[in-house]
Write the structure tokens for this entry.
Amino acid sequence: MKRAFLLIACLAAVSAYGQKFDQLALTPPMGWNTWNRFACNVNEQLIRATADAIVTSGMRDAGYMYLNIDDCWHGQRDSLGFIHPDPARFPSGMKALADYVHSKGLKLGIYSDAGNKTCGGRPGSRGHEYQDALTYAQWGIDYLKYDWCETDGLNARGAYTTMRDALYAAGRPIVFSLCEWGNNKPWEWGKDVGHLWRTTTDIDRCWDGVVNHGTWSSQCVLRNLDQQKGLRQYAGPGHWNDPDMLEVGNGMSVTEDRAHFSLWAMVAAPLIAGNDVASMTRETAEILTNKRVIAIDQDSLGIQGFSYAVRDSLEIWFKPLVGDDWAMCVVNKGQKPQTFAFDWKQETVVDTLTARDAKFGSFTYELHDLWLNKEIGTTRRSLKADIAGHDVLMLRLRRK
Ligand code: GLA
């Protein structure tokens, strides 16, 4: 009897702590993060001004919900080990900032690291996981990005699980973003631990190739995209592959920004903008708030798209959508314009993951160009379209 009681008590304890908040991020998280544009230059004015701009630009209404402060917000730990924000950068404190962000109908995210120090050399959470989780919950934090610098000797799955348990014990639903750059195949174990996991090294504001920083490298958009291939079976509602945050508005050309955004939507990536929202151009705002493209990313089935074919400099992607629709994105990876020709009846588009067959031979689909916002025909006639260099053709195929 005693033993049975003990067993039940143990099981209850395990079920109380051994889990993540499972009703969060049922579609890929959307928001904004300080790092890509502002790096360590973070302060409360920036977060407040960005919150205001996210509302006035229409980004909030388009779905961008999380305002995430990345590295370098930290001050010191006090004598009891509790972390405090940098008093010069965040004089009003995090609770007041969270209240402000919440008053705008948005949510606040923060950043920490599983190791002793963050990548920017600020205090990490190692040995303080439960204390930090409690602090974040008290501040009203809604999202935690958890990095992997200074983690010598740590087991990734174990370290991320410790923080998951700490967040769950603290009791406030917090989206948990795993950022160990794909080093330990987080897609194989991340589903039960967090809501999204980075699959690559850091993104950079360039089209293709690698940028060498001496001790580490960042990658251009197409490199990070390529690394999503082979991972689609691991993604779904509540658990996503993360090819890193958006560089839209940070210096690439408008066509490159548009292509980057479209392709992130095709692979059901988290859409975390990384630009200066308060001073963005009209073109950048139009890309980030294109609701038709966002709907591809946010489709409730949560199926990551796949690369169907590569033809010359063109790569053709498909993504199954709710209601027998499909998204199609053709990216011109080269600099020269290309004419894309596609005879639907000759193509066999099957999603091997869900066994869904587009059956272009028997079904007809209407073609909606998501950037022109225009019907451009149906699959009864073969498609011909010019695609500029470093640009995309992005379509929603509506089953008739
Ligand atoms: C790592 C992460 C980045 C960013 C920086 C902050 O490089 O991958 O996304 O958070 O640390 O220092």
Observations:
- The pocket of alpha-D-galactopyranose is lined by residues 35, 70-71, 118-120, 147, 179, 202 (CB under 6 Å).
- The first helix runs from residue 2 to 17.
